[in-house]
Request: fold
Amino acid sequence: MPVADQQQRTALHRRAALKTAALYAVVACLWIYLSDMFLELFIQDPRQLTQAQTIKGALYVIVTSALLYLYLGHCLQSLRKQEDRLKEEQERIQQEVAERFQQLNTLFNSMNAVVYVADMETYELLYVNKCAIEHFGSSWQGRKCFHYLQSGIEEPCAFCTNPQLLTNGEPGDTVTWEFENLKNHRWYECFDKAILWTNGRLARLEIAFDITERKELERIKDELLSSISHEMRTPLTAISGFAELLLNEEELPQHHRKHLEIVLREAEKLSELINRFLDARRLKINRSRINYRDLVVAELLEKALQGTRYCKAKHDIRIDCEADVMVFGNSKELIQVFSQLLENACRYSPEGGEIVVRAETVADETILCFSDLGLGIPHHELDNIFQPFHRLDTGDRRRTGGVGLGLSVANEIISLHGGEIRVESTPGKGSTFKIILPLPNRRATAPDIESTGPGQT
Reply:
């Protein structure tokens, strides 16, 4: 029962007792006064009057005692009935709690995931499921979570999510993270949530799914892609080199020259594809940020336009950028992003048309917009286009090249620069990609030049 309700009921009982005592006092006084006046009217002898008053007082005590006995008996019987009802209600609630806990326990035990509950202040384990017992042992009662789940740790884990689970002292949003367990050296994807336990104290509920096999497949895939990419660069270099050498022959027949140009062009495309693979792997593995400096956006856009291969003569590209618009970052990576967006705008505008690039400074940010009037992107694809290897599945768009890594790499680069990239599109009317980057005077939020080590952003 809440403390406020209990205090209110106590005050109500006191007022009822006070009213009962006051009523009894008034009735007793009136009885004594009126009965004495009545006796004085009929009895004149003082001795007889005294005896009558004594008998009257004894009768009063007997009658009031009997009434008090009946009243107390009634109150005690009502109290016993209320206690019985409260006991039945308590037993019913305890039974419901036990049934619900059993249901949750059955549910958690059926999950192929480690589930546990730990007190957020003392780190004491309050519950573990069957899968946790199978992975970490059955001796968990009374132990702290970092003693039970980890190895060689005598204090709360440095990566503990407790501080992230509370908002103003109350349970907040779920935190999702991955880590390699120090005890069994397996990888887990964890979902942590602050909850109120049965006794009202704050506890952390964690559901951890074993993703070791997935991590191993990702590692094998990355190594395979890296190995294939590096092994393919050597023959591609030879093919491109010999094709260029033959194209420089003055007496080369025209039809041979045409075939060699196709070979050289396709070799360049394949080389670019390999570079995309290598960029994606590099950005994922090595997140060190070097060679950051103040950059003029107009110069970056001009260099990006010069390196664009897919834009044809029928594409009218207009750059609207003031000379004083600046960003802070790596010029090579930003030029790569801008080139990718320009190439996409040209590739998905097969009929040509105007492509507009606008760059401006708004508040403490630099905003670049790449707009085209091409095929557009279906609404259900907007959340997926930045995923690796994702390609639009419309027949018209399948005629374009690439494997779906360009936008993924661009998104990763912009993220590492402390910015974000967004897209707005209407099918059949074109698309607009918006890049938001911090200004040079906000370097504190971006990586330091040459000072940021691996694993930091």
About this structure: Confidence is low (pLDDT under 50) at residues 394-398, 443-457. The CA atoms of residues 45 and 276 lie 127 Å apart. The domain at 111-210 is CATH 3.30.450.20 (Beta-Lactamase). The chain has four domains: 3-101, 111-210, 214-285, 293-445.
